[in-house]
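Let us work through a complete example step by step.
Step 1: write down the sequence.
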Amino acid sequence: MKILGIESSCDETAASVVEDGRNVLSNVISTQIEKHIIYGGVVPEIASRLHSENICYVVQKALLDADCSLEDIDAIAVTYAPGLIGALLVGVNYAKGLALGSGKPLIAVHHLRAHIAANYITHKELEPHFVCLLVSGGNTLLCKVNDYTEFEVIGKTCDDAAGEAMDKAARTLGLPYPGGVNLDKISKDGDKNKYSFPRPHVDDNPMDFSFSGLKTSVINLLHNSEQKGVSLDAADVGASFINAVTDYLVDNTVSAMKIAELDKLVLAGGVSANSVLRAKIKETANKNKWQLFLPDLSLCGDNGAMVASQGYYEYMAGHIADMSLNGKASENINDNYTKNIQL
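Step 2: predict the structure and record it as tokens.
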């Protein structure tokens, strides 16, 4: 079964054809990074306009690279939530038009579910049950994946996401967009113990995350030093900050694994490409004798392949959307839009 996956939730216009949820036949991504660098971050209106300009070409290229036509596609999957609402609507409306015109089933895919599915492509042997630490620019959560379309949230961020905190730290240090990637690069030779940053704790639910305090602490450190005329080494600040963020993520993951009583751990999301996080997760998994699954670096960021992969499992579960499908800026991972049909 061939699924065409379309992704436009932020600043990547992407499309992919994936067979049976795991075999990638094509994966085309049009990035907008160069357009947003001058603003220091993604400008939603510009992102939406660029998606509109690029989506036809990207989808056509995905079909061409897969050596197939729209007639060969069994269903069309699209990211509908969460993300920038204007950007999402470009992908959703394009997919709806494509599905309506071709008579193909339309599948609504939750962006976070898709990030988890990136691991099904990298690790063709991976099957639920497992615990997933999902870390991205807009979301941070720990969930137990009971089935391909059944998720149990163990912990989530109460405010900022880990990726957002890293981006803010990078911007305060004067690093160009994308902040998290550049922060990781400059921090490789830094002293992770040079500066002390807090390890937050959420009283109401110890498994939840809160990164707003961490973000504020690095901003205060840099502003106070600037006012005193003290020069700080960016590599040391970055390394110390990343060390604090990743310690926090790993500590909660260890607790989540105990709660879930599982020995299979999956890492997902854009921040799963961070070198420090990957190293710490590997070390922790080895220490606890867990099975660990990391997405290929090429699949950590937003892409159409992960959407098509999750779209396959949504389709197999009978989760088919209709023309009432709309984009949503926010949506719980358990609230995926579905119209159940009997296949």
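Step 3: interpret the result. The longest helix spans residues 234-260.
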